[in-house]
Amino acid sequence: LRRQLVECRYDIDRLAPHFLSIYQSLIPPSEEKAKQKQLLLSLERLVNMQWPKARLHLYGSCANSFGVSNSDIDICLAIDDDGDLSKNDILLKLADILQSDNLQNVQALTHARVPIVKLMDPGTGISCDICINNLLAVVNTKLLRDYAQIDDRLRQLAFIVKHWAKSRHVNETYRGTLSSYAYVIMCIHFLQQRKPAILPCLQQMKATYSITVDEMECAFFDQVEMLHNFGAQNNESIARLLWAFFHYWAYCHDYTNDVISIRTGSIISKRAKDWTRRIGNDRHLICIEDPFETEHDLGRVVDKYSIKILREEFERAANILQFDPNPSVTLFEPY
Ligand code: 3AT
Ligand code: MG
Fold first, then answer.
1. For the PAP-associated domain, which residue ranges apply (predicted)?
2. 30-136 belongs to CATH 3.90.550.10
3. What residues flank ligand 1, with Cβ below 6 Å?
4. Which of 90, 122, 117 is closest to 106 using CA atoms?
5. How far apart are CA 85 and CA 16, in angstroms?
6. Beta 126-132 vs 116-121: how paired, if at all?
7. Which of 2.60.40.420, 3.40.50.1000, 1.10.1410.10, 3.40.50.2000 is the CATH number of 2-26+151-330?
8. Residues 171-223: pLDDT tens digits?
9. Which residues of 123-157 are buried (b: 16+ CB within 10 A; e: fewer)?
10. ipTM of the modeled complex
11. Closest residue to atom 26 of ligand 1, CA basis
């Protein structure tokens, strides 16, 4: 069976227009972006009345260019610890400030894994989560956004993979499947590995952007406008790439030994990272290295039950793209 599946169907490229139109239907309209910017500015004005030097940054899918319409927005409050206030104090103070404005459902979740203030802006209907000083997320958001500008096929692939993952309920970290962030990293890695490559490895190139966050140096090449032709030697269509992506995760990835790494633009071994044993809750059943926090396995949420579900879903997707007469419908059938 494995051997049969290595060559994809002869007419795979004819499916490209179907997948492109699905991609297009998922892209948020530009008015939505404008509304988000507006909300960000008005929140910043409020925050600055209390903390004049504090800044608000968008991160996550509303800023990394992998967001679909009507997503909630993720905001990071960057504030200098003036020593007196703990993170929780800041969070509670922030909730107070926002509460007194015309915002709804303001809630401080101080005990969450990432503590946040949640709120809803009745003017725009936009919901947002605000966290404190999570600058690493702001930097990894920039890395993803920069990759997206190099070749359109990354955004196309990642939108469709995220749409598939949501439809099939395998984008639920609280139930042991993968985050959207992890799926985008998997797509970047996959496009770095195509022959010829569709994406470069920005962290291995001469750094033009560098910032130190939590004593960690985050550096990469960010003049991506110079890389617009990078993938031009490769003319694979989105349909072919989608098939190859699922085929890789269904039949080719070595789950026992390999870690995917967009930081190095290669596959590295679990042994080299000492990810061969379960330590605490880290089981390393599917290994996806975070580009900056290299000791973090983005697959650490996956357990012995959910790994089975994930792999079955990768196989299902690969087989649908291989054999199904109408794959652009079947692929996303609700679970
Ligand atoms: P959705 O469109 O909301 O599904 P998203 O891109 O907002 O996707 P997530 O909700 O998974 O993605 O995460 C929001 C951001 O938080 C994305 C990334 O900048 C950061 N982030 C998420 N998970 C991790 C992680 N494990 N390590 C570091 N940063 C992370
Ligand atoms: Mg999000």
1. 237-296
2. no
3. 59-61, 64, 66-67, 71, 74, 137, 140-141, 179-181, 290, 296, 298
4. 117
5. 54
6. antiparallel
7. 1.10.1410.10
8. 999 999 999 999 999 999 999 999 999 999 999 999 999 999 999 999 999 99
9. eeebebbbbbbbbbbbbbbbbbbbbbebbebbbbb
10. 0.97
11. 298
Neighbours of 242 (CB within 10 A): 29
Residue 211 three-state SS: strand
Each domain of the chain, given as residue ranges in start order, spans 2-26+151-330, 30-136
Residue 127 CA: distances (Å) to CA of 68, 122, 284, 304 = 14, 9, 33, 34
CA of 60 to the centre of ligand 2 (A): 5
How far, in Å, is the centroid of ligand 1 from the Cα of 36?
Answer: 18
Give residue 271 CA to ligand 1 midpoint distance, Å. Answer: 27
For residue 92, with 0-12 CB atoms within 10 Å meaning exposed, 13-18 middle and 19 or more buried, which class applies? Answer: middle
Determine the average pLDDT of the residues in 258-265. 98
Using the mean position of ligand 1's atoms as its centre, give its distance from the Cα of residue 14 in Å: 33
